[in-house]
Amino acid sequence: MSVTSDTTQNSEAETLFTSSITSTMLAHGLQADFSETNISSLNTSVGKLEDGVASLDKGLGRVERSISHLEDSMGSMQDQIQSIPALIEDHLCSFKVEAPPVADVTITRRLDKLESQFIVAQDKAESLHDRHPADNTSVLEERLNMLEQRMGGLLPQVEGWIATSKRLDTIENINTMMQADQQNLTQILMGLQDELHEVAMDPALIIADSVAAGQELASQFGTLGALVGSPVTPTSAQLRHMVQPVPRIQTSRIPRAPPRNHTLSLIRILPVYAFLLTCVVSLAYFKLGPLYHDDPSLHLRSVEDARIRSNYRPSVF
Fold first, then answer.
1. What is the DSSP letter of 256?
2. SS3 37
3. Residue 271 falls within a domain, yes or no?
4. Would I find Transmembrane among this entry's keywords (predicted)?
5. pLDDT greater than 80 at residue 276
6. CA 234 to CA 314: how far, in whole Å?
């Protein structure tokens, strides 16, 4: 009895469903054909439609995940770019201008990477806009607009960083020129100190060395060169004033003048002593020679002494 009632209820439900579908299709101007072929094709179309909706949901999920990943990468890049001015300020405060040649390469790479990521984001936005209707991509467009605003806020910072990099290059060039000038000044001061040291060792070279040093330094140091090269001999106070920059140099590295060669000095003095000795001997000869030749007793005595010495034979005991 229950089986018959169930069958009756199922047939009534099928009739009601068929009549509702028939009325709907006729209202839309369609032919109400409920053959098995049409029903199977309709089921197939509905299944394909469901699969398309599921794939669309999956695609939207992937797009949302890629956009979140892009936002994370943009945030990390923003943090890195914001940390750049602090690094530059620390570099300027320490004034260690070995300004890295890697800095320019790093700037270029980061800017290229940032530009490529922004282009990829724009391409993704355009592809999403082409694939899906505007009402489904409004959230994505808002996110992309926010990213574009962030990029617009980061561009002035990047431009300021590039200007600071150019300033660093200028400072590096100035530092190189200052180092070259300092080396030249050190060499000149070392030469001046050697000249002053030699002058202190040998007072006879004061005029010649001071004039030579003044002529050498007059083209580079103006007042100092004119002071040293002037005909007036500089005073001790002026010499101390000229030697004032020397304590800034490490004196342990400045080569000192070698000690004087006493043998050479002795060789130079020997002719003077020989001349004086010749004069004394000549004077003694001219003074005592006539006395010896005028006294015949001295002459005979010397002859007798010579004879005695020649005839002397030692006795043998």
1. P
2. helix
3. no
4. yes
5. yes
6. 79
Residues 116, 224, single domain; the answer is: no
Q: Is the pLDDT score of 61 beyond 60? A: yes
How many domains does the chain contain in total? 3
pLDDT of 229 strictly over 50? no
| In contact, 250 and 235? CB cutoff 8 Å | no
Residues 109 and 159 in one domain: yes
Q: How far is residue 96 from each of residues 88, 101, 162, 175, measured CA to CA in Å? A: 11, 13, 18, 10
Q: Identify the domain containing residue 219 by its residue range.
A: 180-253
pLDDT band at 25 (very low <50, low <70, confident <90, very high): low
From residue 83, how far is each of 100, 145, 156, 158, 175 by CA, in Å? 17, 24, 14, 11, 26
Cβ(212)–Cβ(198) below 8 Å: no
- Candidates 154, 61, 146, 142; CA nearest to 114 is 154
- In sequence order, what are the residues at sequence separation of 6 or more whose Cβ sits closer than 8 angstroms to the Cβ of residue 164? 85, 88
Rounded distance between C-alpha atoms, residue 88 and residue 168, angstroms? 9
266 pLDDT more than 70: yes
Greater pLDDT, 53 or 276: 276
Give domain status of residue 294, yes or no: no
Of 188, 198, 182, nearest in space to 242 by CA: 188
For residues 198 and 227, give the distance between their C-alpha atoms in angstroms, rounded to a whole number.
19
